[in-house]
Design goal:
Radius of gyration: 24 Å
Strand content: 5-15%
Largest sheet: 4 strands, parallel
Number of helices: 9
Strand order of the largest sheet: 1-2-3-4
Helix content: 40-55%
Order of helices and strands: HHHHHEHEHEHHEEE
Structural class: alpha/beta
Number of strands: 6
Shape: elongated
Length: 278
């Protein structure tokens, strides 16, 4: 993430934390059953917010992801604070003061935020061996997606990952979409594909739901690069775009590239794709 995005997330998380802490004040003198009910509601909200951010991504969340992420971080810290306070009550038969509870909650929010930042900037390769009687050759293929360069991963993280990919000496590199997003500048986008092209690895690309900056106009008022500029940067660096099409690799392997489901009008029914050799 860029410093501005980090700052935005931190400020919004602090605001959410203060709001939740203030509302928590009114629970201190409530009956234990009322506190249990509120705790269950908070757990449901944490799970629901996480699912909305990651799994379902409806339009309202997609367009306001940072407030929802800030709410998630602040609330999950508060949930873990409740667990610590409950354990303390069971052991000491006493209740912690409101200020102590707030500090505990703040510590958990900080820990979760740091974990997420470190996790986001850590790219760990996973290795899979796939076998088939249809394969006559062995292939070493790297699949890479969701870099969200300029938003999620920093330049140093991406550069390091691409250098490690080069060292693997793969036969092919597959880019599975969302390599860039709405926060990526034109300069960052062009640099990234120049870096990918410099690997000298046969590379194939499909669009995700962010590469073409789907919501840039809504969120920022303008695109940071046009689709034409994106295509020129991709193809100009020897990266092949597979768009409802396929490519034959030797006589035993076919790579098919689909349009992203976020473009249902352009995504063909599978039976309408070009006929693929068996």
């Amino acid at each position: 993430m860029t410093p501005a995005l980090y700052l935005l997330l931190i400020v919004e998380t602090i605001v959410m934390f203060l709001l939740i802490s203030y509302l928590q004040k009114f629970l201190d003198n409530k009956h234990i059953l009322w506190k249990i009910l509120v705790f269950i509601i908070k757990v449901v909200l944490v799970i629901g917010d996480g699912l909305l951010l990651i799994a379902f991504a409806p339009k309202i969340v997609w367009n306001h992801e940072y407030p929802f992420a800030a709410f998630y971080l602040a609330l999950i810290g508060d949930v873990f604070k409740d667990i610590v306070c409950f354990i303390y009550y069971l052991i000491k038969k006493n209740r912690l003061e409101y200020k102590i509870k707030t500090i505990i909650s703040a510590v958990f929010v900080l820990l979760f935020t740091l974990y997420n930042i470190i996790n986001m900037e850590t790219i760990v390769p996973k290795y899979h061996t796939i076998t088939s009687d249809k394969l006559n050759n062995e292939y070493n293929i790297v699949f890479l997606s969701d870099l969200h360069y300029g938003s999620s991963q920093s330049k140093s993280t991406v550069d390091k990952a691409l250098d490690e990919i080069k060292e693997l000496n793969p036969d092919y590199l597959l880019l599975g979409g969302d390599i860039t997003d709405e926060n990526t500048t034109k300069e960052e986008m062009e640099y990234l594909y120049q870096k990918i092209g410099s690997l000298n690895i046969p590379t194939y690309f499909i669009y995700g739901n962010h590469d073409r900056q789907e919501r840039a106009i809504l969120n920022y008022g303008a695109l940071k690069y046009t689709e034409e500029e994106l295509v020129n940067a991709i193809t100009g660096n020897n990266v092949n775009i597979l768009y409802e099409d396929y490519v034959e690799i030797n006589d035993d392997l076919i790579i098919i590239g689909r349009e992203d489901p976020s473009h249902p009008d352009e995504r063909k029914d599978i039976k309408d794709l070009p006929e693929v050799p068996r």
